[in-house]
Amino acid sequence: MQQASSPVVRDIVLVGGGHSHVMVLRMFAMRPMPGVRLTVICTDTDTPYSGMLPGYVAGHYSYDDVHIDIRKLAEFAGARYFKDEVTGIERNMQRVLCRNRPAVPYDVLSINVGATPAVHAVPGAPEYSIPVKPIRHFNERWLALLGRMQERTQPTTIAVVGAGAGGVELTLAIQHRLKHEMAKWGQPANAVQFHLFSADPVILPTHNARVRAAFMRTLQARDVKVHTCAKVTRLDKDCLHTENGDTFATHETFWVTQATGPAWLKETGLALDESNFIKVRETLQTETDPLIFAAGDCVAFTTRPLEKAGVFAVRMGKPLNHNLRRSLEQKPLIPYRPQQKWLALISTGDQHAIASRGALYAKGNWVWRWKDQIDRRFMRKFNELDPAMSSQTEAAQTPIPLKQEEQTQAISAIAMRCGGCGAKVGAGVLSSALANIEPLNRLEVLIGLHAPDDAAVVKVPPGKAMVHTVDFFRAFINDPYLFGRIAANHALGDVFAMGGEALSATAVATVPPGLESKVEDTVFQMMKGAVEVLNEAGCALVGGHTGEGQELALGFAVNGVVNESLEGVLTKGAMRPGDVLVLTKPIGTGTLFAAHAQLKAKGRWIDNALTYMQMSNRLAVPCLIEHGATACTDLTGFGLLGHLVEMTRPSGVDAELNLDALPILEGAAETAALGILSSLQPANVRLRRALQNQEAAVSHPNYPLIFDPQTAGGLLASVPAEHADAAIAALQALGYPAVKIGRILAQGEALAPIKLIL
Predict the structure, then answer these.
(1) Least confident interval from 50-54, 452-456, 683-687
(2) 18 with 313: CB under 8 angstroms?
(3) pLDDT value at residue 563
(4) For 304, phi and psi rounded to 5 degrees?
(5) What is the pLDDT of residue 195?
(6) Separation between Cα atoms, residue 695 and residue 615, nearest integer Å
(7) Helices 19-30 and 70-77 meet at what angle, rounded to 10?
(8) Domain 570-758 homologous superfamily, CATH
(9) Which of 71, 159, 368, 496 has CB 3.0 to 4.6 Å from 253, enough for a Cys bridge?
(10) Is 260 helix (H, G, I), strand (E, B) or coil?
(11) What architecture is the 404-569 domain classified under in CATH?
(12) 3-class SS of residue 201
């Protein structure tokens, strides 16, 4: 994981987290490229390793054993990670279209999105089958099936459509797993009947006769009914139909056949084959566009047909990495030479496997152990990451060729601008970045963002008083759009916590240097996210200042309004004895993002935390006021304990805080237990003197988290006891995971106001 010291001059964008792209990410970590920014766009943070999935289904591996954490790997590589679904490519504009965020520009693009079973080609298959891909959906449905099987009292028929290596492996893996699970459930092992359907005259048609014969013997020995020359033509809720007119009753059907590429590829204008796979040359460039590369199962290799096997996707990683770099350097590309024969180690579900390579064949438990060693060694390359493993400096190599106007910009960016006003981002860049951002128009804004004046003019409505707040911090994630959303949400929190209405905001941003187009896009992405949140809150962006610096940072000065009479205004100092303490969101962002920086946090933990950090407090406050809340604050840098102390002191009360009741973000307890804490934690820990029973509580697993600084945290409020249950129910109905975490007491004689309940 490294900070780029060179201004950004080129963007490589990776669409998908397949085997080829994880290889590219790792190689960039080991050898970064000066001036090149790497971005990966992926729907799922956890990307599966296909070679170990049957072992996962069979119960030999855990979920984490068989998945590569793309968010963590991207952080290791110094790459940006955008969790989103790609919907298309605008090749004329050189940008990738996404479902939930602004388009992402590229100089060179690579696609590695795999293949999916073509269920839509068979009537009923989309509704009534379980496709093996995408893996996330398969896993959800597989776990649901296990739940159904535990409750099922009648005999069950399971069909697997597709008898290649994937279908055969899956059949045997499912059978092995269910045999053992049903024994635990007290159900008879023969309560499940398996059927395997092949459209071909044989199973495993791409493997030699000895391999096919060995698997036929295994399937027969385990009472799997094999149907050859049985192309499935229709699927109903409880049966399937084959081309020869046969009908088979089935309760569960898995679909492992007729692979196809993603539907959105059809609109890209790229050359595709009849199965919607991208046609690529031996350089892995698409036939249509030299700026777009593709690899893995989503490609049709024009030199010769390749089986959809993970071994080819992995082997493509190295030449793809070289060619992405060489394309930017304008050097000749190198060819990918797929091997004529490859080793396939196919498991039988019971820690036994068969080896196939050309005419070669071997089998035994030792083959499975061999396969297990190979697979685990491969996964360690991507999941056992240490920041010390990656290069801390950008490798010396051939400078990227630049156009004449780009060379001038690059020289300026390298030198940076002088301090003061000279550090501003250029007016032209800023104007272009903000041109397509539409901040909310409010009648109170007399002179705003798009006026040429140096300051905004905002009218205060009659009978209202101003609420002023400001926040500013550097980016803790490498997604400028998402960072903009969270920064805006965080800044609005103080206004909402008081029961105020957000009126206007002024932005202050710092952006790393680069070519004007790169700086412009970073500003656009960040401010697009921020303005979306501000607009949703009814807050008008009225101006700001943007300068260059080494790190991306963003803050807002927010102006809100409350009733001049202070009616309906919530403050920190109005708690009353007998009130119940309510917290609207879980805590733990400080430790999680500290762990993320050290590559110690799982990507899905970060995904979950980011979801809560984007949850606005705007709707929670009126709900709390409606239920008689007496005091309120939003949790930020001082942590839960710091903010609670801020409330008890002016209120003249004490408080009980129940450590077991605290809502904790997924993974936060684990990272805190490892001693991975925010840099702000030591300052917050000084407040332990406010605890009456600190020594007794220090060993509690949630104890460190009461000091954990929060970003875009939830609301801490006191609510009369008689209204607390109704308030929490109403908050939960709005989507907030609100819980009771303590109560307010009359002030006692102890100097320390807070007692922890263990």
Answers:
(1) 452-456
(2) yes
(3) 94
(4) -160, 150
(5) 97
(6) 35
(7) 30
(8) PurM-like C-terminal domain (3.90.650.10)
(9) 159
(10) strand
(11) 2-Layer Sandwich (3.30)
(12) coil
